[in-house]
Amino acid sequence: MWHCLLLDLKQDAALIEEYRRWHRPGAVPSAVVASIRSSGIEEMEIYQRGDRLVMMMKTGPAFDPAARAAADAADPEIVAWEALMSRLQQPLPDAAPGEKWLPAERIFALSAQPAGAGG
Fold first, then answer.
1. Coil/strand/helix, residue 23
2. Cβ-contact 101, 89 below 8 angstroms
3. Does pLDDT of 119 surpass 70?
């Protein structure tokens, strides 16, 4: 299953560049990568446009968001990573206190359109 999540970065060029540096291949701590992979996340990509981030995440049947959140909260290395990232990230205006990545609602899929539909 694919998930699309949104989050903003703080509007500061130096902080945005720091965020990008932390996400280069090999820069993300191995404990963070291991946590992602072991939780049932099969693929994850983050896209950036200005200060807006879009995360595309493909999960398998073993993925349990609540279990992942609990495991991450109990792992000091993940907690430290999240604290570091929180310095650089800005929650969306409609985020509840403590919320970061918010899900986007899919409103269109080409695969759901009837063949021959349209112009």
1. coil
2. no
3. no
The 3-state DSSP composition of the chain as helix, strand, coil percent (nearest 5) reads: 35, 25, 40
pLDDT in tens, 23-51: 999 999 999 999 999 999 999 999 999 99
Angstrom distances, CA of residue 55 to CA of 76, 101, 115, 117: 23, 8, 29, 30
Partnered with residue 5 across adjacent β-strands are 55, 103
Token reading at 55 = 């995360």
Q: How confident is the model at residue 116 (pLDDT cuts 50, 70, 90)?
A: confident
Give the type of residue at 72.
Answer: D
3-state secondary structure of 63: coil
Rg of the chain in Å (alpha carbons)? 16
